[in-house]
Amino acid sequence: MRQVYLDNSSTTRVSDNAAKSAFEAMTLYYGNPSSMHRKGIEAEKIIKEAREKIASFLGRTANEIYFTSGGTESNNWAIRGAALSLKRRGNHIITTNIEHPSVLEVFKVLERQGYKVTYLNTDEDGFIDINDLKKVLTEDTVLVSIMYVNNEIGSIQPISEAAEAIKSYNKNILFHVDAVQAFGKIDLVPALAGIDLLSVSGHKIHAPKGIGVLFVRDNANIEPLIYGGGQEKGLRSGTENVPGIAGLSCAAWEITQNMKEWKIKMKSLKKRLKDGILEKIPDVVLNTPEINSAPHILNASFIGTRGEILLHALEGKGIFVSTGSACSSHKGGASHVLKAVGKSLEEQDSAIRFSLSHFISEDDIDYVIETLTEEVCEIRKFVRR
Amino acid sequence: MERLYLISFGEIALKGENRPFFERMLTQRIKQVIMPYDKNVQLKNVHGRIYCFTQAPKEKVAEALKKVFGIVYICPAVSCENNIEDIKNTALEVIKEQDYYGKTFKVETRRPNKSFPLKSPEVNAQVGAYILSNIEGLKVNVHDPDIRLDIEIREKTFIYSEKIPGPGGLPIGCTGKAISLLSGGIDSPVATYMIMKRGVEIEPIYFHSFPFTTDRAKEKVIDLCKVLAGYSGKIRLHVVNFTEALKEIGKNTPEEFLTIMMRRMMVRVADKIAEERGAKALVTGESLGQVASQTMEAIAATNEVASMPIFRPLIGFDKIEIMDIARKIGTYDISIEPYADCCSVFVPKHPKIRPAICEVHKAEEDIDVEKLVSMCIEGIEIFDVTP
Fold it and tell me: Which of A133, A364, B150, B207 could potentially form a cystine with A4 if both were Cys, beta carbons 3.0 to 4.6 Å apart?
């Protein structure tokens, strides 16, 4: 059966070259990077080169790049590490209500520990208002965390303006950006101006799972989350995931080299998909904003169906999508993002997220539109609520 | 001194001429569960009990036997010669294996072998005194002891101080075979367990309705069967592809009758499979009044299409009681996994609560029942699930 994988915001297929790099790191350069012998130095070299490469992709320097186990750890570490180290300066922290759970849950924990948290609301397209941000900044504010691209609906936040607003209010406030869905997909703020902390995840950019990056501006002090052997300048202990790092470095190289071309391709595929859906299927509500949305995410509600059933119906035809975000799909219940942007219960319940990659062809999209049209029509006959 | 397990079976002992049959079923099952740990396990049927000789680790044996229907008690025992010195020493060993410090004990002797020179109270006194003088931190309490040391003097003497309760009931297979309608929910696995306990071999049937329910729901039912197979040995699960039937019913039935129609279709399919598999009854997890489809009228409407009895062991149980059993038998945590079971989609807003049978027949008029049943039977997937 034909297979079309449209769940790239959950995870991506590892690219052949990235897999090859990881394989070589596992089988040839398997030394412990902390070991003093030649085998150790070989492994250390891989890390060093990867650090330099990734730094250059972000327009920063290698000493600001830290390897973690992935996006969740990067987000957790950035937020907790910053809040903890700045505790004496103030206890007010700011985020938005459409963040990924790996950000929101940390804020909830900090809230229980006595931090004052402001959750910025977003408009119906999923954008924050910079004026709202300006209004809530206070003397006590020590950290602001805003995601670059929303993982469910694809809205791109005005990060540059946010950075400017924060830094012109008080340059000591740390600004964290969850760039897990942004890195390699859109142009980031040049040289990460005004951004102190930035999270990247490997498996969203065709690298293996279990590897991520946290960029920490060189003058920003954050507390470690993991203690031990003192790796990563003592800020993130634990033997480095050399195969993961090798894979990440390779995948990051590929995605940044090809970004221009892939972006254009995904944009056109997304448009083809959107137009096809709107043309062929009645009663569809688009949840992804018309402008300022990532090239790879399209979220739509098919009124009169249920997202979960539609997902499985498409799965039966070899098409893999998700309802909202895969991270929360085990918990049941609606998406907090769709709820936050004011979608009705019916819209939340019938939402599907299509997330693209450069592996998809126009032909694939046409197959998806055709199948989707049939399945939506079929399900609408039975779902009576 | 030799280690063994004394296995007592309650209800079977009451059987008359059929007793050897029940005992044979039980010994077979015991052998089956211990073999994976000890291929050389030996069983001996004596005086309405089974002696089990095995080198398998005690925890494994206890764990395995606790799941064998028909067993009432398992006593890990030590046997010795019928002479009082041996008895005393062995008794001391058995006590020492207990966590005895600061506890009370008593000795309870039975002497079916009347050729033994000492009477039971004399054995109690001598063994008790010997233990007291050789162990510190242990006291006697004949009324409510923490540790009861049992001595049985037969052709040999058996000494034990632990009585591990078994599940009771009758050995699997001795009362026949039934088809159980298993969903992913809490009730049906419990109902299945309860019928298994009455000695029934079960072949569950699950109605899968992809894409309306996920393949994870099917995995969940397989996981439930794994737990149940722990009590019965290998289970054959029949997975029926119910989607097309469901759609037909959805299209051609007045909404309020949807659930009843679905249940009638399921029973028809189960009935057919039962016939093919030589089963003599169906089992469901219904409990009276729990939901709209479990009223007397609705139950009567499902009963009508079955050719064989439908057993409903939970009919008089509260949800809380059912959940308690589910926890005890180990199905609860699987059952509460959040994957919707049988088509929460096809739930009418206002289900018919007390359907008259003539209304049911009328509602079914537009459905080609025969066609749907054979369609369901055709696409059956079979899984042989082992614990």
Answer: A364
Residue A33, exposed/middle/buried by CB under 10 A (0-12, 13-18, 19+)?
buried
Q: How far apart are CA B131 and CA B15, in angstroms?
A: 40
**Residue at B170 is within a domain:** no
In-domain check, residue B231: yes
Closest to B113 measured CA to CA, from B54, B155, B171: B155
User: Cis omega before residue B36 (within 30°)?
Assistant: no
What are the φ and ψ backbone dihedral angles of A21, each rounded to 5 degrees? -60, -45
Of B247, B345, B349, the CB nearest to A306: B345
In a domain, B288, yes or no: yes
**What's the ipTM?**
0.79
Q: Which CATH architecture has domain A4-12+259-384?
A: Alpha-Beta Complex (3.90)
A384/B349 CB distance under 8 A: yes
Query: With a threshold of 0.80, does the pTM exceed it?
Result: yes
A377 is catalytic: no
Comparing alpha-carbon positions, the chain B residue that sits nearest to A307 is B212
- Each residue's pLDDT, cut to its tens digit, for chain A (385 residues) gives 899 999 999 999 999 999 999 999 999 999 999 999 999 999 999 999 999 999 999 999 999 999 999 999 999 999 999 999 999 999 999 999 999 999 999 999 999 999 999 999 999 999 999 999 999 999 999 999 999 999 999 999 999 999 999 999 999 999 999 999 999 999 999 999 999 999 999 999 999 999 999 999 998 999 999 999 999 999 999 999 999 999 999 999 999 999 999 999 999 999 999 999 999 999 999 999 999 999 999 999 999 998 989 999 999 999 999 986 544 444 456 789 999 999 999 999 899 999 999 999 999 999 999 999 999 999 998 875 4
